[in-house]
Amino acid sequence: MNYDIIIIGAGPGGIFSAYELTRGEDCPRIAIFEEGHELAKRHCPIDGKNIKSCIHCPSCDIMNGFGGAGAFSDGKYNITNDFGGTLYEHIGRETALELMEYVDDINCEYGGAGTKMYSTAGTEFKKKCMQNGLTLLDASVRHLGTDINYIVLQHLYDELKDKVDFYFETPVTSVEKLEEGYRIHTAEAIYDAEVCIISVGRSGSHWMETVCEDLDIPTMSNRVDIGVRVEVPAPIFEHITDELYEGKIVYRTEKYEDNVRTFCMNPHGIVVNENTNGIVTVNGHSFEDEGKKTDNTNFALLVSKHFSEPFKDSNGYGESIARLSNMLGEGVIVQRFGDLERGRRSTVERMMESRTVPTLKATPGDLSLVLPKRILDGIIEMIYALDKIAPGMANDDTLLYGVEVKFYNMEVELDENLETCHKNLFVIGDGSGVTHSLSHASASGVYVARHILGKG
Question: What is the pTM for the complete model shown?
Fold first, then answer.
């Protein structure tokens, strides 16, 4: 065997697996294979001046590389079982929370100690939500910010680089099961190991499907979240973000009884492009550095759709909507809420008159030509519901960017150890379909590492 353990993917799950595996004196021989670059070499070419839109790099530096898609996120670690995945269904609620707190301790040790922990415990805002038909989900939130999150990851890489063999810019083409262990195929070579941990994240969803097909690993279809990213002047949500930083709020629509939820709230943040499998969608970042903060707050409004029979490809459905947006807007579309309500597209001239200045250069357009009516109706209902607890939310100049799509891998059938039907083949992080967040993905990596070491 070339290695004792091979990890595929250097996102949060892979990083924390490697971290935990290397804590003891007898460190196993570990290799990590990653399609993208090391952290210092990850640079998106979009600069807003010379390159204004996605040029479809062979490997997206926003989605791939050391740190995974979370490397340039706003660095929020939500310690909760109420959202972020269903890891607790495999390992238990108490264990899941303990591991998320352990990950938080490590993040603080490696550069995040000066950041703030927020909590919904004891907040009066929960009652206000209930009085207006909204539900505030419980969580403790560590906000690192995109800048501090980068520092933490760099320190973790410095800790691991001399203990682990990293193979960057080395995508794995296939995984082969041997009589004892696994063989990893790349374009240039093959590598064998007794244990294989797969942690490929959401961007590896299609690849993960082929591995499951090749190895006859049972899977189940998962949901896709579709919606828009909202941008408003920061004071509208300051009474929420100052106390909670991020309020995870759920609303059940009157018309269809669909759940619409807020996601990834970024006080004084920026709206950014995101590339998933060649499709340009929208996301948001925020920073701890006061000098990088903006006058706006952004967050997503998402509706979940889960298909089973006869159509099962939830991600394909989301991709088709995102591709339509890309076709009409040559990327991301932005629309004023007032224009949407009046049934007209936003134009360059109308955007110039907007009192909310956009933080992302996007194409003015009409989201009603992109989003299905049921989803758009739900988003509009949610905006008016939020206006009751955050007056100004339903202003004409509230900006809507589309589309935002959160793709979830099909859920891989795993046991209580996150092990597949094949011994010593583990699937962790968002690539498993079990976790949907930085904190849950990281915790899953620690859990599997401890099981392998016999400490679970």
Answer: 0.86
Sign of the torsion formed by the C-alpha atoms of 411, 302, 241 and 149: positive
- Residue 57 has a pLDDT of 85
pLDDT along the chain (456 residues), means of 10: 94 98 93 97 80 78 92 90 95 98 98 94 94 96 93 98 97 97 96 98 89 96 93 96 93 96 95 84 89 95 88 88 94 97 97 96 96 97 98 98 90 97 97 95 98 86
Residue in the structure block whose two tokens are 């990893």: 184
The pLDDT value recorded for residue 1 is 66
- The three-state secondary structure class of 55 is coil
Packing angle, helices 93-107 and 12-21, rounded to 10:
80
Residue 231 CA to residue 89 CA, distance in Å, equals 35
Show the DSSP H helices in 161-304 as ranges.
205-214, 238-244
Q: State the Cα–Cα distance between residues 33 and 186, nearest whole angstrom.
A: 9
279's tokens: 């499709």
- The span from the CA of 177 to the CA of 421, in Å, is 12
The two tokens of residue 50 are 């010379």
Cα 64 to Cα 42: distance, rounded to the nearest angstrom: 8
DSSP β-bridge partners for residue 195: 5
**What backbone torsions phi and psi does residue 189 show, to the nearest 5 degrees?**
-160, 175
Closest listed residue to residue 147, CA positions, set 299, 332, 289: 289
Rounded Cα distance between 256 and 381, Å, is 11
Q: Are strands 249-252 and 259-266 parallel, antiparallel or unpaired?
A: antiparallel
144 vs 46, 212, 364, CA distance in Å? 24, 35, 32
Q: Which of 296, 316, 327 is nearest to 405 (CA)?
A: 316
The token pair at 63 is 């989605």
Give me 17's structure tokens: 């697996």
- Which residues, in sequence order, are bridge partners of residue 259? 252
| Residue 118: Cβ within 10 Å count | 20
Identify the three-state secondary structure at position 440. Answer: helix
